[in-house]
Amino acid sequence: MPTQSPVLSPSYTRVLLVRHGQIQANIDKKWHGWTDSGLTPLGKDQAQRAGSRLKHQHPQVSAIYCSPLERTRHTAQAIGDAFTMGIQPIDGLKEYGIGVWEGESFQVLMEQHNFFERLKQDRHFSPKDGESMHQVSQRTVTSITQLAEKHVGETIVVVSHGAAMALILANLLHNDPYQWDRYFFDNTGITELHLGPDVKLFEFNCTSHLEP
């Protein structure tokens, strides 16, 4: 069961980070950064369950934001339907795009392209037509910070992606993007952050809504 959400201080914004529902690439263990793809039937069910859980636990949500990609928009819309609320896409919340290596399996990225080792050696490394870890960190943290500043004292939902959200937490909580491997998000896992004078993590990757 989710923990009881703490009282929100007037100087903070409660940000409910939600990873999108399942897509086929998650099953196939392939990297879909900017690659657009829809939710699987299970992913649609996960999104509806997340919406019901959020409506029950946080009926005071004032806005729902998401990455502009299809999987996040559809997840956010399922949540919005639970609140009878529209969604607002934000470009800065997109997933980590890796250019010509999009659609490769994690195994190929690791064994043939040496992708993750190259990231460790240089946060400014980017595949052809892709982004660097540094660039993704900057745009995602800027986006989440601006949204928090816009909604001080309120609760918002932000639907994004696994790598993007891991970099948000790594940078906000540790000031170090390389801490991103500490944070793995299940599909529609819900994470509660309070952003204000400092950053507080109250709940991480809660999936109680997916239990039978």
Question: Please, could you describe this protein's structure?
Answer:
Helices cover 38% and strands 16% of the residues. With 212 residues, the chain is α/β, with parallel strands linked by helices. The chain has one domain (13-210): Phosphoglycerate mutase-like (Rossmann fold). The protein has a six-stranded mixed β-sheet with strand order 3-2-4-1-5-6. β2, α3 (70-83) and β3 (88-89) form a beta-alpha-beta unit. α2 (41-57) packs across α3 and α6 (133-150) packs across α7. The N and C termini lie close together (12 Å). The mean pLDDT is 96.
Query: What is the CATH homologous superfamily assignment?
Result: Phosphoglycerate mutase-like
Strand segment count:
6
CATH class: Alpha Beta
- Report the CATH architecture: 3-Layer(aba) Sandwich
Helical region count? 7
Biggest sheet details: 6 strands, mixed
- State the separation between the terminal residues, measured CA to CA: 12 Å
| Strand residue content | 15-25%
Point out poorly predicted stretches: none
Which labels suit this protein?
single chain, alpha/beta, Rossmann fold, six-stranded mixed beta sheet, globular
Describe the secondary-structure layout.
Layout: E1 13-19, H1 24-28, H2 41-57, E2 63-66, H3 70-83, E3 88-89, H4 106-111, H5 115-121, H6 133-150, E4 155-160, H7 162-174, E5 190-195, E6 199-206
Parallel strand pairs: 1-4, 2-3, 2-4
Antiparallel strand pairs: 1-5, 5-6
Helix pairs in contact: 2-3, 6-7
